[in-house]
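Appendix C reproduces, verbatim, an entry submitted by the partner laboratory led by Prof. M.T., so that reviewers can inspect both the input and the predicted structure.
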Amino acid sequence: MIMPMREVLMKNQQKTLEMLDCKEIFFSTLNDCIKITENCTCNKEGLASNQEEADTKVVLHYKSALASSLNKSIILRSPSGDTDITIIMIEKFIEERANCFLDYGSGQNRMGLWLNSVDLNKPLKECLIGFHASTGNDFVSSFFRNGKELCWKVLETNPKFYHAFQNLGVNWNLSDAIFDLLEEFVCFAYGYRRKSVNFVRHQMFRAKYKKHSKIVDLSLSPPCQSVLKLHGRRANFVAKIWKSSDESKLQIPEISHHGWKSTGEIKWLVREFPDDVEELLLNPELDKLDDDKIFDRDFESEEESDFDS
């Protein structure tokens, strides 16, 4: 559809410019970018991009317009009021020398947001992309019943987590140090000042189990560590792409190493059962133990030594 659309635009320059009420149109593809004006059509260097999302391509065009325009006011049109482009712009690309406006909505609901007016201290502003990437968006799942508002309050009141979100997406690979902070952040978001999501899941399960509840809804618990690691890799991958929005050509690694299957589907688990659970299922000797004793045995040492923070 892209190339036929491009041909139509080039053949109907005047009509298209009048319809869109503009003087120039830039049409970007993987291999080139053409600039369409009333009098001519020419190639525009530096704007051909292999970025897949319009959100990131918009930033590339914004930077180009800012460099070439005498008018230092730029309007970004987003009918849906897309959160991704707003977050990307506020953290990385708003400059004091230029006014940037987001034009969103349609009809009577059409509104404008002056992005320069967003008042956040610098450390928190530098967390925006990492925070949005890890707490839910079009590519990475959110935490059930722990939405962005709750997670943001946890971040605001615990500056020790700033480093994790500021550095999410700096490299393609998620470091162990950043993951450890993200894991602790998730524990805090679920109301536990601990460092292990597995421990928090155990505590929440026991609280229900001891009440003899017939139903234990595990969706209300944080993801287990192996699931959270894959979640973290996806969040880091997305954050890296967003932070590279001003780059026209990216060397994007294979997604199967970053929390997805090679087909593009989400990889939720590394394996179906962790070793200790598989051992429990296959070991008839453990059938003789009371359930409470099994859980106590597995987590007693962690409770005493690893989680005293």
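The radius of gyration is 25 Å. Additional entries are available on request from the coordinating office.
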